Amino acid sequence: MSILQEIKNRVRSKSIHVTFVDVGSCNGCDIEVLACLAPRYDIEQYGIYVHNNPREADVLLVMGAITPQWTDKLRDLWDKIPEPKAAIAVGNCPISGCVFARRHMYIEPPVEKYIPIAAQVPGCPPRPTEILNAILSLAPTLFKDYEEKQR
Amino acid sequence: MNSIIWYLREFLRVEWLQKFFFAKTAPLVSPQYFKDYPTTTGNECTGCCTCMMICPAPGAIEVLRRRDHWDPVIHKGHCIRCGLCVEVCPEDVLQSGRVLDVQRRDGTSFRSWYHLAVDDALCMRCGNCCVSCPVNRQEDPQLASTGTSSNDEVIMKIEDGRVRVIHEEKCTGCKTCETNCPNSAIRVARMVQGVHTEEKA
Fold it and tell me: Which residues in B lie closer than 8 A to residue A99 (C-beta atoms)?
């Protein structure tokens, strides 16, 4: 393995850029993600930066049961994220639809139908620690040796 | 001048530098009392399915029949960790956080019954509900075809050309009437009420 790759692995595990998208949630999971930014959990001490622009991000946090308006737009958003990238489903909604998964509901879970999901964080809402653990355990392993794997 | 030196000395202290560069918040662990996904206590499940009936999230809990016992299974990704199944279980099969302790201390429980509602606009007075009801069958074996009965012990009967619900409390919630109603006019609803029993002094 080249030294350059080694450096890249190291940097990528210490600097994870995250963006989040709400595809029709009740705001519970959004609040938990915001709690990660607050001093109590302080996501930046682990080198995780939150952006509002998918073009700057490596990891996409998807929250909410998919509403029909989002079914095509989520794919567009996913395509805008530069490689290497990963998506994490935060909360029950993108996994199963949670309490909204009933008849006559205008939602279309699960989110795996639209973009590839690397990890799921169950909970309604999940604890900020659970979100944090998911990002921290997933991102370094997934982005490790990215260029080597491409070859 | 003195203060500048004091500050310089302060900032060159090893502890200060360590703290400045390597400070981390305390490792984050869920507190003991966190109401996490319910786990089993080891008490034997009787398969009454009360937990499934009270669960607000679709598909979150299932009581499965194993070879020789019942087994409540929580599905992550569906469960919203509200703790209602823990609270409602009569055998204390499940536990989560300090739900059981609080319940024991406060003497709270749930009371449930079945409510029968007939929509008179939809009902065509066929009497299928009264005839199909297994409890009615036991109370008055004569009850048939029209759904009329002289017996007042039945759950419901046709009286004066409309369904009259007499003994709602006898309903077992089997919903046979609901499935046999051609117009979906009768509805069986499970009602739940929180009950607080005063402590014995």
Answer: 56-58, 80
pLDDT tens digits, one per residue of B61-114: 999 998 888 999 999 889 999 889 998 888 889 988 888 888 888 888 888 889
Number of structural domains in chain A: 1
Residue A8 falls within a domain, yes or no? no
Residue (of A22, A83, A11, A76) closest to A49 by Cα position: A11
Mean pLDDT within A117-142: 89
CA–CA–CA angle A78, A79, A83 (5° rounding):
95
Q: What is the dihedral of CA B33, B64, B112, B87, to 10 degrees?
A: -10
Q: How many Cβ atoms are within 10 Å of B40's Cβ, its own excluded? A: 13
Least CB–CB distance from B25: residue in A42, A123, A124? A42
Distance from CA of B81 to the nearest CA of A (A): 7
Q: What is the CATH number of the domain that holds A109?
A: 3.40.50.12280
Using a CB-CB cut-off of 8 Å, the residues of chain B touching A95 are 77-78
- Domains contained in chain B, CATH given: 39-106 (3.30.70.20), 115-189 (3.30.70.20)
Distance from CA of B48 to the nearest CA of A (A): 23
Cβ atoms of A134 and A119 closer than 8 Å: yes
pLDDT-derived band of residue A108, with 50, 70 and 90 as boundaries?
confident
Under the banding of pLDDT at 50, 70 and 90, the label for residue B19 is: confident
Predicted pLDDT at B141: 83
pLDDT at A1: 66
Residue A47 lies in a domain: yes
